[in-house]
Specification:
Number of helices of chain C: 16
Order of helices and strands of chain C: HHHHHHHHHHHHHHHH
Radius of gyration of chain C: 20 Å
Number of helices of chain A: 21
Helix content of chain C: over 70%
Radius of gyration of chain A: 30 Å
Transmembrane segments (chain A): 7-25, 56-78, 84-101, 147-167, 179-200, 212-228, 240-259, 265-287, 294-315, 327-351, 372-394, 414-438, 450-468, 488-508, 550-568
Largest interface: A-B, 32 and 24 residues
Number of domains of chain C: 1
Number of strands of chain C: 0
Shape of chain A: globular
Structural class of chain C: mainly alpha
Organism (chain A): Halocaridina rubra
Protein name (chain A): NADH-ubiquinone oxidoreductase chain 5
Domain NADH:quinone oxidoreductase/Mrp antiporter transmembrane (chain A): 102-373
Largest sheet of chain A: 2 strands, antiparallel
Chains: A mainly alpha, B mainly alpha, C mainly alpha
Oligomer: heterotrimer
InterPro entries (chain A): NADH_DH_su5_C, ND/Mrp_TM, NU5C-like, Proton_antipo_N
Number of strands of chain A: 2
Strand content of chain C: under 5%
Order of helices and strands of chain A: HEEHHHHHHHHHHHHHHHHHHHH
Distance between the termini of chain A: 95 Å
């Protein structure tokens, strides 16, 4: 099954890549439209848009998911529910495909909800308590975004249709109050920006191939893609808030990744940081740059997760980097690919990440923005390199630190072949994309200091990341001196607690209060029981009136007769 | 249920428990083996320093201080074994215990007549083997 | 357990003949005559020589109906010179004859003494003539009396039934409550009350036939005897829910039509809401009849001397499910 799905998806990738090339060179796009119902001058249409953006994204999604499905043939081998897993992943890819090719808010909701549902089912694939909690957090966080899209659909009734892409060039969308803010909110939940970040590391409870798919090209990028599509209509306050929150997310995730000990969570936090980068550049108004980074990021992030999965798989399920060391000697191919992905991530020149990230940072530096966001971005760039080198330290150097009995190796070709393919992608992908997406290259003119700032913070970050982890016997851990700060940073600024405990605590206590005061209190006494006893009293008086002889009934009738007739004469 | 103490716990046991937890905590902080060994030896020395304290009042105070210090240094992501409670893969693969088969409905069992016949046979053989090896179980005296 | 004697046939025929005469007459005198014929032939149906309770009921019924008839006759003669007041006298006497509040007092004691078959006739057939006459004499003046009577009947029927433990009295109060709805239906339009009445008669038929076949006169009999087959309980529950007007069942539809009519003909919403609230209360005591026997102590014996329900009872109970077939009407009409 993994082979046939891989072949099918790769075929799809090829077809959409070829159509992307044709569409770019001949400069055209297709719209397929089916009018389902037209009601009160509102036409509900199912529209498929095939332009260069959707075709390119589709080809990347199907290529990566093909690789991931092939990979999971090795990773999930021997699992009892393998078939369910495969179908779920295919359903995931299908939902993403629907979302990519629809320029219509209603059909976007179809794909969007499909993603939410399948991601929930995939996160709880392992049926332990951890996964169940993570799944619930994921589903409920994403639910906020679903609701926001539903409300936007309601608001778009005004416009006589939901195909927002046709209104992008006019100011119609921003005329409807709140619509843009709601769409931004939806995108922020899906792409895990700051108030909703907690679910993304929690979703690491899913099997690693799922993480590879979810965090590279599908689930989390859906929000970014939505905003890219909505692009020209974004503006005003929502843009500014997005810029602020996205820079904070970027910084928070970069900082958190430096203190995280779970291999998969480190990579998840780096995804979060890169999503922050995309959102930042998106909020500055450079949609194509965000799209560029989205695709390049998809390539090396899938690669990173695959390598992490390979390590986890061979280390007997252990994901803790404290148990790792010197892995390069026993699984050279996986670790080499992983570090390739890592270097691409932190923007090493001429790897995939370099082209997009360097461009984004320089354009950011040359734009009009506030100083707070500027420093956050500069710091986050350094932090990315910092946690990358921390990972390199833990995987490459040191002594063997795993369990004393192990069989870690690179022998499973089903797992290594996709790594090699995507590794090649992370080397050449950036250059390839930049040539195709931008017909003429960007020219960014900056003073020397700013031009070198990105390089400088990167070198500094790499140095710090490697050196801080070197320990000798006589050093006390310096992080222990700032224990409280460490706790704050190491647990994602307490966001998991705030988004789980606080919300459930508040709602549950409110529910209890309502129950005590209402259902078990006033409402019960004056509502159900009060009504019952009141009616019973009435009923007793009626019974009293009933308790008479026929003569009295007849006299009563006559009295009424005389009374009513008398009043009418 | 750790908040509910149901038995008398000796002071020695409390100290041992503190020592073990501190060691595990050190393991979370210092992940390279040599550093961990160095710190572990230091920790052991601190415990050994007071091992001969006879005055229980002082010992109790030392224990309380130790607990407080451990609490202030606890790791934010403690290292857990993969398949132990709290670990990432805990209860990941659910293996239903063998006795579940005994609670199948007769109609369900009837679907696999050979297997269940053999199963009953094996059970009988096991009881025979047990009784031959260990003798018949005696009635417990109350 | 329907016991029909030879004379029952004769008196049933004259009873129906009286009804037909009354409904189709064009003068008040003939109408009075039809009502008298109807009354006179119902009395022998009620009384029986073996038991003194039916005789008592028959006497009470006779006295009340005679009072109603005489005031009706008086009103028809007064109509020559009291052009305003006579309609309200007619209306009052007809309200007395149907047993609508505030002249409902005779109905529960009369029903308490007679058998289920006679109860059924009293609750349904005996109401046709007075109600159809009321719909004839409805004027602006008398409609105020009608509205008051309707609201009172609904309230009294709902509240009175709450304290009852005897099934015949419960059904008597239920009849008073439905009387309130039917009086409202008269003032809505001519067909509405016919529809309401037919639905009410069918549901009452299903309830009464089950009570009659098992000779249930007290709600304890439903509760304590677990020897009935499960289908009996189910059918009883179904019929009672339908009588209370629970949505998918037959009893809901006339009520829904009434609500629609009220909305479209701009009648008082206070009136409607009182009717609806009273329907909720009646549903409470219907449920109390069946709830504990079906939900709480629903035991089942393997052997039972009780026979299963007859086809007649089953089909009359299942009529309550007939709304499920309404969509099929679309197939006929297209």
């Amino acid at each position: 099954m993994y082979l046939s799905s891989m072949l099918f998806l790769c075929l799809l990738a090829g077809v959409s890549l070829v159509s992307f090339l044709i569409m770019t060179f001949k400069d055209f796009s297709y719209f397929v439209e089916w009018e389902i119902v037209s009601f009160n001058s509102c036409s509900l249409v199912m529209t498929l848009v095939m332009d260069w953006k959707s075709m390119l994204f589709l080809s990347f999604v199907s290529l990566i998911s093909g690789m991931v499905l092939f990979y999971s043939g090795g990773y999930m081998a021997g699992d009892l529910n393998m078939d369910r897993f495969m179908y779920l992943v295919l359903g995931f890819v299908f939902s993403m495909g629907i979302l990519i090719v629809s320029p219509n808010l209603v059909s976007i909701l179809l794909g969007w909800d499909g993603l939410g549902l399948v991601s929930y089912v995939l996160v709880i694939y392992y049926q332990n308590e951890k996964s169940a909690n993570a799944g619930m957090l994921t589903a409920l966080s994403n639910r906020i975004g679903d609701v926001a899209i539903l409300i936007s659909i309601g608001l778009m009734f005004d416009m006589g249709g939901w195909s927002f892409i046709f209104y992008n060039d006019t100011s119609k969308i921003s005329d409807i109050g709140g619509l843009v803010i709601l769409v931004t909110l939806a995108a922020m939940t899906k792409s895990a920006q700051i108030p909703f970040s907690a679910w993304l590391p929690a979703a690491m409870a899913a099997p690693t191939p799922v993480s590879a798919l979810v965090h590279s090209s599908t689930l989390v990028t859906a929000g970014v893609y939505l905003l890219i599509r909505f692009g020209p209509s974004l503006g005003g306050v929502s843009k500014f808030i997005l810029l602020l929150l996205a820079s904070l997310t970027m910084f928070m995730a970069g900082l958190g990744a430096n203190f995280e000990t779970d291999l998969k969570k480190i990579i998840a936090l780096s995804t979060l940081s890169q999503l922050g980068v995309m959102m930042v550049i998106l909020s500055m108004g450079f949609y194509n740059l965000a799209f560029f980074h989205l695709l390049a990021h998809a390539l090396f992030k899938a690669l990173l997760f695959m390598c992490a999965g390979s390590v986890t798989h061979h280390a007997g399920g252990s994901q803790d980097i404290r148990m790792m060391g010197g892995l390069i000697y026993i699984m050279p191919l996986s670790i080499t690919s992983m570090n390739l992905g890592n270097l691409a991530l932190c923007g090493t020149p001429f790897l995939a990440g370099f082209y997009s990230k360097d461009l984004i940072i320089e354009i950011f530096f040359s734009s009009f923005m506030n100083e707070f966001c500027f420093w956050l971005l500069a710091l986050a760039t350094g932090l990315t390199v910092c946690y990358t080198f921390r990972l390199i330290y833990y995987t490459v150097s040191g002594d063997y630190n795993l369990a004393s009995l192990g069989c870690a190796s690179d022998s499973d070709y089903i797992m290594t072949w996709p790594m090699i393919c995507l590794g090649a992608g992370s080397i050449v992908g950036g250059a390839f994309l930049s040539w195709l997406i931008f017909p003429s290259p960007y020219m960014v003119c900056l003073p020397l200091g700013l031009k070198l700032l990105a390089l400088g913070v990167s070198l500094l970050g790499g140095f710090v990341g490697y050196v801080l982890n070197l320990m000798t016997e006589s050093y006390q851990l310096s992080s222990l001196k700032n224990y409280k700060l460490l706790n704050f940073v190491g647990s994602m600024w307490f966001m998991p607690f705030l988004s789980t405990y606080s919300s459930s605590y508040m709602f549950l206590t409110t529910g209890q209060k309502y129950h005590q005061a209402g259902d078990a209190g006033w409402l019960e006494f004056y509502g159900a029981q009060g009504a019952y006893s009141g009616f019973m009293v009435c009923s007793k008086y009626l019974q009293l009136a009933q308790d008479n002889s026929v003569k009295v009934y007849m006299v009563m009738f006559l009295v009424w007769l005389i009374f009513i007739t008398g009043s009418l004469i | 249920m750790s908040y509910l103490q149901t038995e008398i716990i000796s002071h020695a046991r409390k100290v041992c428990s503190l020592y073990k937890r501190s060691l595990r905590n050190l393991e979370s902080w210092y992940d390279r083996r040599p550093m961990l060994r160095y710190r572990a030896v230091l920790l052991r020395a601190r415990f050994d320093e007071n091992k001969d304290v006879k005055d229980l009042r002082v010992a109790q105070q030392l224990l309380d201080e130790g607990e407080k210090e451990l609490f202030s240094l606890i790791h934010y992501q403690p290292k857990k074994f993969t398949y132990s409670p709290g670990g990432v893969a805990y209860e990941r693969e659910v293996a239903p215990p063998d006795w579940v088969l005994d609670y199948w409905h007769p109609m369900e069992k009837a679907a696999y007549p050979e297997y269940f016949a053999r199963r009953e046979q094996r059970k009988k053989e096991y009881i025979e083997w047990w009784e031959k090896t260990y003798g018949k179980p005696t009635e417990p005296s109350h | 357990m329907l016991v029909l004697k030879p004379h029952h046939g004769l008196f049933l025929i004259t009873l129906l003949a009286g009804l037909l005469i009354a409904v189709s007459s064009s003068s008040w005198f003939i109408l009075w005559m039809g009502l008298e014929l109807n009354l006179m032939s119902f009395i022998p149906l009620l009384s029986s020589s073996e038991n003194r309770y039916p005789a008592e009921s028959a006497l009470k019924y006779f006295l009340i109906q005679a009072l109603g008839s005489s005031s009706l006759l008086m009103a028809s003669t007064l109509s020559l010179f009291m052009s305003k007041a006579w309609t309200s006298i007619v209306l009052l006497s007809l309200l007395l004859k149907t047993g609508a509040a505030p002249f409902h007092f005779w109905l529960p004691p009369v029903m308490q003494g007679i058998d289920w078959f006679q109860c059924f006739i009293l609750m349904t057939i005996q109401k046709i003539a007075p109600i159809s006459m009321m719909s004839l004499i409805l004027t602006n003046l008398s409609s105020l009396t009608l509205i008051s009577s309707s609201i009172l009947s609904a309230t009294v029927g709902a509240l009175g039934g709450l304290n009852q433990t005897l099934t015949r009295k419960i059904l008597a109060y239920s009849s008073i409550n439905h009387m309130g709805w039917m009086l409202a239906a008269i003032s809505v339009n001519e067909q509405m009350w016919a529809i309401y009445f037919m639905a009410y008669s069918l549901i009452t038929l299903s309830v009464v036939s089950i009570f009659s076949s098992k000779q249930i006169f007290h709600i304890n009999q439903v509760l304590t005897t677990n020897i009935y087959p499960q289908t009996t309980k189910m059918m009883l529950f179904l019929s009672l829910l339908s009588l209370g007007g629970v949505p998918p069942l037959l009893g809901f539809f006339p009520k829904m039509m009434m609500i629609q009519e009220f909305m479209s003909s701009q009648l008082s919403l206070l009136w409607l809401s009182i009717l609806l609230a009273s329907a909720l209360l009646t549903l409470f005591f219907y449920l109390r009849v069946a709830n504990s026997s079906l939900m709480l102590s629903s035991l089942k014996t393997k052997y039972s001397l009780q026979t299963n329900l007859s086809n007649f009872i089953l089909s009359s109970s299942l009529l309550n499910m007939s709304p499920a077939l309404y969509p099929l009407l679309l197939l006929i009409s297209y």
